[in-house]
């Protein structure tokens, strides 16, 4: 739909293009078109930078530019050359037959090509004819480029034809149009001239890049160009174009080479041409970078907003945290002024005026204390922390409030003091606790002292007891010694009494009468009783003093029982009692002190005989498997012992008939000794009795002595 | 009872308690012995050396020199060591008998001791001594008391 009307697109390929050019030049009748085509070819095939073609006008007085390449717009506008100006070097070159070489400028005359060396080739149909135009081509040296020379000849053939068929006016219009093109091309924004339907009439080079694809363009390029045309047409066809006022709109196109999006601001306005109708002039301003910049600015702004929100949140959180701390926290600046304080601190250092004058006074006092405290870190260099006690008071109650304060400095990156953070901790409780602890300690010490005293007391008592124990032991030993001595002392006179009584009874001093014999016999029996008493006391004394040695041996109990019975045979005979011994089951041998067991059994049997007027005495030996003990029970059918008295019979000097002249004789120490002896042997004596029914005394002994 | 032809054995009664000493002496004489008396250890040693009794009845608790010491000395002396000594004590404690045996006593009698029992003991001791003496040349060791 869009076709470039300004320039033919050149095909690459040297020979082919040169042939095509030659063919065009030979067949074309329009000199200007030929000139342009030739110049374009030259520019694209020879590397010649600047080329200008100028021909005479109809009056042959002026030279007009008909085609150019690489020449500045200013140079085109300025170009003016009078044919008659014979002194002008270009006119002189035109008059010359051969091409003229001009070295690089600056020149003293006006020339479209000025800053580089160039050739001027006169255009004439043959050498005899005057030239009607000139070809200016930039050069690298005096040597004329062969293609330039060739083109010069080609155009020379046409220069007559041109003049014969086209008016100079047309040439002039063409020059102006050319000027217009160069101006339009010089504009960096794409400019398009279209009809109202969007059909392209003129486009500058920048617009061409977007809307026209060269014949050898890639598929992508072509597609991008097609897309751009569609987008552009669509934009124009909207209502905005219908208005007379320039319409602004954004138009997104595709860069055909890069493939990236390009954002343009489209400015369309209508232009009226009476001859050709209405046109639409569209200028596209590339705002891609602008849009990007705007986007970036918006992004930055959004980021900034977010950051600000973060900071706000952070600050809010910090406030919450600081307020949640029960201890007062204050931040002061380097002047000592409070810049931040949490809620507990507020209660101490900032009360509302409504709190009353006393409260304000306390607040001022607190502030003064704080200032002097904080000054410790402000004045001390090098110390970042200061700890100390401050005496504050509660503004509302006036109660003294001892606190411990810790002040720390916050330094900037440059090491300058920025703020001082002070944290206060209520010491009331700590002091209270310290007091309590002190009291507790005192109590504890008191207790300890008392315990020590009591312990010392106990130790003293123990010592006393120990001494008493020693004294008692000594007393006991003395007692035993005394009793032993006493028994000896008793024996000595008793020995004499018994001896002399015996001698008298034996008739050593002569014959004794019956009544004398009776008296002597009484003396003898009482003396013997006294001796038995003395012997029993001596036994008890020995047992209690631990001086009764044990002589262990193994023997048969039945044998011992028989021995005891035979020793008491005379008494048994006198008593008229039936005395029997028996064994229940089988008995193991007994390991014990035979002499002492015998003494016990003698005592028990003689007691039974003594306290049984009529009936029988039975001795039964048995073995208790479970207790591993041998029991010898002496059972009589005698007077018996009432229950309340049963324990008393084992006590010293006890007979149930407590009168001094006992009807039954004996010392009253027998059972007491028996019980002591049985305990010595690891056994016991039990009594089972009922008054009138008789008594059973049972001696129990371990068959083997127990190891202690 | 000793024969009238023979010289009856001499018993030295050592006892500080006069009643007891005279009682034993009287009964021993009544029983046919000759009797010498001493009241303490020193006197006992002097009379033993001087009279060379056939047997000594020695109370252990004596003044000046007790019976144990006197017994030890008599048993160390060649002149008296052959005389049998019967210890007599009122102390029934085991230590006394043991101490008397260690000192060299040949027999031990506990008070009260009836004169009968004492005479019997002395006769028993002398009988074993007489047997000893007769057999001295044939058998050096006595067959025990």
Keywords, separated by commas or semicolons:
heterodimer; A: 708 residues; alpha+beta; Beta-Lactamase; 5 domains; six-stranded antiparallel sheet; five-stranded antiparallel sheet; 17 helices; 23 strands; 22% strand; disordered N terminus; B: 145 residues; alpha/beta; Rossmann fold; five-stranded parallel sheet; 5 helices; 5 strands; globular; disordered C terminus
Describe this structure in words.
The complex is a heterodimer of chains A (708) and B (145). Chain A is of the alpha+beta class and 708 residues long. Helices cover 47% and strands 22% of the residues of chain A. Chain A folds into five domains: 14-184, 2-Layer Sandwich (Beta-Lactamase); 187-286, PAS domain (Beta-Lactamase), CATH 3.30.450; 325-426, Beta-Lactamase (2-Layer Sandwich), CATH 3.30.450.20; 427-548, Orthogonal Bundle (Helix Hairpins); 550-702, Heat Shock Protein 90. Chain A contains 17 helices and 23 strands. Chain A has a six-stranded antiparallel β-sheet with strand order 3-2-1-6-5-4, sandwiched between helices. The longest helix of chain A has 78 residues, at 428-505. With 145 residues, chain B is of the alpha/beta class. Chain B has a single domain, classed as Response regulator (Rossmann fold, 3-Layer(aba) Sandwich), CATH 3.40.50. The longest helix of chain B has 20 residues, at 115-134. Residues 133-145 of chain B have low confidence and may be disordered. At the A-B interface, helix 12 and helix 13 of A face helix 1 of B.
């Amino acid at each position: 739909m869009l076709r470039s009307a300004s320039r033919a697109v050149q095909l690459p390929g040297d020979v082919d293009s040169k042939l095509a050019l030659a063919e065009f030049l030979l067949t074309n009748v329009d000199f200007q078109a030929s000139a342009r085509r030739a110049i374009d070819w030259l520019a694209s095939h020879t590397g010649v930078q600047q080329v200008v073609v100028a021909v005479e006008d109809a009056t042959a007085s002026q030279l007009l530019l008909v085609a150019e390449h690489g020449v500045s717009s200013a140079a085109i506008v300025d170009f003016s050359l009078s044919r008659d100006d014979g002194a002008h070097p270009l006119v002189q070159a035109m008059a010359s037959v051969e091409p003229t070489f001009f070295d690089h400028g600056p020149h003293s005359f006006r020339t479209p090509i000025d800053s580089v060396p160039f050739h001027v080739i006169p255009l004439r149909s043959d050498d005899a004819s005057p030239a009607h135009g000139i070809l200016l081509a930039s050069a690298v040296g005096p040597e004329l480029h062969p293609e330039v020379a060739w083109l010069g000849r080609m155009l020379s053939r046409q220069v007559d034809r041109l003049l014969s068929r086209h008016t100079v006016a047309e040439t002039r219009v063409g020059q102006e149009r050319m000027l217009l093109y160069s101006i339009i091309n010089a504009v960096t924004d794409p400019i398009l001239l279209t009809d109202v339907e969007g059909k392209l009439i003129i486009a500058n080079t920048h617009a061409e890049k977007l809307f026209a694809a060269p014949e050898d363009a890639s598929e992508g390029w072509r597609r991008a160009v097609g897309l751009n045309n569609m987008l552009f047409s669509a934009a124009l066809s909207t209502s905005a174009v219908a208005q007379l006022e320039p319409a602004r709109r954004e138009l997104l196109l595709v860069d055909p080479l890069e493939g990236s999006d390009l954002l343009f601001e489209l400015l369309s306005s209508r232009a009226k041409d009476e001859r050709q109708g209405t046109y639409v002039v569209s200028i596209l301003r590339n705002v891609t970078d602008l849009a990007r910049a705007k986007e970036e600015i918006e992004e930055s702004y959004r980021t900034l907003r977010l950051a600000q929100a973060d900071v706000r949140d952070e600050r809010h959180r910090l406030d919450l945290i600081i307020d949640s701390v029960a201890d007062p926290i204050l931040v002061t600046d380097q002047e000592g002024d409070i810049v931040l304080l949490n809620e507990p601190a507020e209660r101490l250092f900032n009360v509302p005026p409504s709190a009353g004058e006393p409260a304000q006074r306390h607040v001022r006092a607190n502030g003064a204390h704080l200032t002097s405290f904080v000054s410790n870190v402000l004045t001390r260099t090098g110390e970042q922390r200061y700890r100390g006690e401050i005496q504050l008071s509660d503004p509302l109650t006036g109660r003294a409030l001892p606190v411990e304060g810790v002040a720390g400095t916050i330094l900037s990156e440059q090491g300058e003091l920025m703020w001082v953070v002070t944290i206060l901790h209520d010491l009331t409780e700590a002091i209270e606790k310290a007091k309590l602890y002190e009291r507790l300690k005192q109590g504890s010490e008191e207790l300890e002292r008392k315990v020590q005293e009591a312990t010392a007391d106990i130790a003293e008592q123990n010592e006393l007891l120990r001494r008493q124990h020693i004294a008692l032991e000594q007393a006991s030993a003395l007692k035993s010694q005394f009793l032993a001595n006493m028994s000896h002392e008793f024996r000595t006179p008793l020995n004499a009494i018994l001896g002399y009584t015996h001698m008298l009874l034996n008739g050593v001093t002569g014959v004794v009468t019956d009544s004398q014999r009776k008296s002597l016999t009484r003396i003898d029996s009482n003396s013997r009783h006294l001796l038995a008493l003395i012997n029993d006391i001596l036994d008890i004394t020995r047992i209690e003093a631990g001086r009764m040695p044990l002589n262990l041996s193994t023997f048969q109990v039945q044998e011992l029982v028989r021995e005891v019975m035979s020793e008491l045979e005379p008494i048994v005979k006198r008593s008229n009692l039936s005395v029997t011994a028996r064994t229940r089951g089988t008995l193991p041998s007994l390991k014990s002190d035979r002499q002492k067991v015998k003494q016990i059994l003698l005592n028990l049997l003689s007691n039974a005989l003594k306290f049984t007027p009529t009936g029988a005495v039975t001795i039964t030996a048995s073995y208790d498997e479970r207790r591993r003990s041998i029991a010898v029970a002496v059972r009589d059918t005698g007077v018996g012992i009432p229950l309340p008295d049963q324990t008393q019979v084992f006590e010293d000097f006890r007979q149930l008939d407590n009168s001094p002249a006992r009807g039954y004789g004996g010392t009253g120490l027998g059972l007491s000794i028996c019980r002591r002896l049985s305990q010595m042997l690891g056994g016991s004596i039990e009594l089972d009795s009922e008054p009138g029914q008789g008594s059973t005394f049972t001696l129990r002994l371990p068959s083997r002595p127990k190891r202690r | 009872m000793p024969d009238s032809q023979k010289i009856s054995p001499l018993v030295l009664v050592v006892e500080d308690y006069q009643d007891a000493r005279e009682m034993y002496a009287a009964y021993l004489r009544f029983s046919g012995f000759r009797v010498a008396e001493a009241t303490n250890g020193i006197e006992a040693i002097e009379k033993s050396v001087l009279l060379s009794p056939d047997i000594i009845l020695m109370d252990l608790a004596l003044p000046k020199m007790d019976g144990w010491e006197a017994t030890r000395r008599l048993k160390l002396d060649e002149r008296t060591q052959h005389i049998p000594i019967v210890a007599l004590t009122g102390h029934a404690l085991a230590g006394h008998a043991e101490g008397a045996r260690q000192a060299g006593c040949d027999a031990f009698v506990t008070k009260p001791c009836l004169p009968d029992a004492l005479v019997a003991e002395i006769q028993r001791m002398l009988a074993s001594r007489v047997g000893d003496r007769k057999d001295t040349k044939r058998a050096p060791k006595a067959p025990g008391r």
